[in-house]
Amino acid sequence: MHRSSDRTQRKALVDALCTVLGSVGLGIVVVQFGRAPGWEGLAAVTGGLALVSVAVLGIVRRRPLFSTPADRVTLGRAVLGGGCATIIVLAALGSLPHRSWWLVLLAAPAVLLDAVDGTVARRTGTATAQGARLDMETDAALMLALTVPLAFTLGPWVLAIGLMRYGFVALSWWRPALRAPLEFSQFRRITAAIQAVVLVIALVPVVPESLAASVLGLSLALLSASFLRDIIALERRHDTLPARVRTEAAASGTGKGTPPRS
Description:
The chain is an all-alpha fold. It has one domain. Helix content is 78%, strand content 0%. The protein has helices at residues 2-34, 38-60, 69-92, 101-112, 114-124, 129-154, 159-174, 186-203, 209-240, 243-252. Helix 6 runs parallel beside helix 8 (186-203). It starts with a helix and ends in a 10-residue tail after the last helix. 36% of the residues are buried. Belongs to the CDP-alcohol phosphatidyltransferase class-I family. This is CDP-alcohol phosphatidyltransferase family protein. Keywords: Membrane, Transferase, Transmembrane, Transmembrane helix.
């Protein structure tokens, strides 16, 4: 049993290390393509690692330490997201355009693979709450990163799409009712998928900026409706709980300020 536990922990650490090395390797390739000066290249690779660190920390902080086949798919998505972040930093520094085919080339599979890790988890019987949270945090970091180049192109309002989930978490620190777990919602799941697809489409260089802005505006409205729907549901559920239960939930800090909201 002890040997099995050690082997599981080593495998998780290897997965985390491979993710970091993969991010660095992809970042170097992207920097070479962008022909960025030394300091710009270093900043870009660091930006990629910052996104990847969200997923890596999600693995190494687990107690007990473990990783699953589905987690490896998510970590692979994080590497692609790190490549996107590297390109985004280079674009912000002027080495690449904000909307480029290279960014779409990495962002599209990172988004499409979001449908794979859940399937892998179910088919291998390795679905876990930690895996779901890893997937959610990776999604959130990627969505925020993809809004940055669009904010440069279309205006800072686009950042609201990437920041909304973090705003929800911040609001939950002040409002205990929002820390409760959310029930499964197909509407929420479809809305999240739409955000990712729309962001990738808006990043395609040949898509007119006016069309991209219109589609993103509708997407933001849908996302706002989804969050408002969940906030109302959580508040209503909280109001129906006995006062004693509400007090205990607030004292225990259910969800630790990070509700499972994708």
